[in-house]
Write a structure and sequence with these properties.
Distance between the termini: 35 Å
Helix content: 25-40%
Pfam families: Pribosyltran
Oligomer: single chain
CATH architecture of the largest domain: 3-Layer(aba) Sandwich
Largest sheet: 5 strands, parallel
Shape: globular
Order of helices and strands: HEHEEEEHHEHEHEH
Structural class: alpha/beta
Keywords: Glycosyltransferase, Transferase
Organism: Nonomuraea purpurea
InterPro entries: PRTase-like (IPR029057), PRTase_dom (IPR000836)
Strand order of the largest sheet: 2-1-6-7-8
Radius of gyration: 16 Å
Strand content: 15-25%
CATH class of the largest domain: Alpha Beta
GO molecular function: glycosyltransferase activity
Length: 208
């Protein structure tokens, strides 16, 4: 399966699939989702904004996500994984609190004191650079749903097939360009998949 050159190319290809959206609110998950969403914003002629999310990691191995949260929403846990690890939501309360603080810091970094745009009754497109387990996307979609939009679309260049299927229950529409069977990591589907900094995100948002 052909690779995307980079996030910008993936976003341009996604934009063609989203061109019929009507005055949408475009929310990107930082950091990688912002680079994908920037060409979509240009194609649709709409403002790009961030929706900050944080993974809730397993304390002995923080890279293993047992849940996630998005600004304006409650933590969303992988209850089956928690059970397998002998944990409960209460037992990772300390991790949740730390991630809440980091989430708030990133909101201040990216938006300052400005709130998210109002999405009640609007069409909303949530963008990320790919879906592995889908934990942060799920938390983002539930936070958006709570604000009562008219329609929620999740748009990603690539995603694990099972994850894409499960997230169709969370969004009105899921737009994904590629669903490879042999999915291992998001980065394997890009020729260039550089890590982005907060400064990179601010530059993409026109706030650098």
């Amino acid at each position: 399966m052909e690779l995307f050159a980079d996030r910008a190319e993936a976003g341009a290809l996604l934009a063609e699939r989203l061109r019929d959206a009507r005055d949408p609110v475009l929310l990107a998950l930082p950091r990688g989702g912002v680079a994908v969403a920037a060409p979509i914003a240009r194609r649709l002629g709409t403002q790009l904004e961030v929706l900050v999310t944080r993974k809730i990691g397993y304390p002995p191995a923080p890279e293993l996500g047992v849940g996630a949260m998005a600004e304006g929403g409650e933590p969303v846990f992988d209850l089956r994984l928690l059970h397998r690890l002998g944990l409960t939501p209460e037992s990772v309360a300390g991790v949740v609190e730390r991630e809440r603080r980091e989430l708030a810091r990133r909101v201040r970094t990216y938006r300052g004191d400005r709130p998210l745009p109002s999405i009640e009754g609007r069409e909303v497109i949530v963008v990320d650079d790919g879906l592995a387990t889908g934990g942060t996307a799920r938390a983002a979609l539930r936070a958006v749903r709570a604000a009562k939009p008219a329609k929620v679309t999740l748009a990603v260049p690539v995603g694990a097939r099972e994850t894409v299927m499960s997230l169709r229950e969370e969004a009105d529409e899921v737009v994904v360009l590629r669903e490879p069977v042999d999915f291992r990591a998001v980065g394997q589907w890009y020729e260039h998949f550089d890590q982005l900094s907060d400064d990179d995100v601010l530059e993409l948002l026109g706030r650098g």
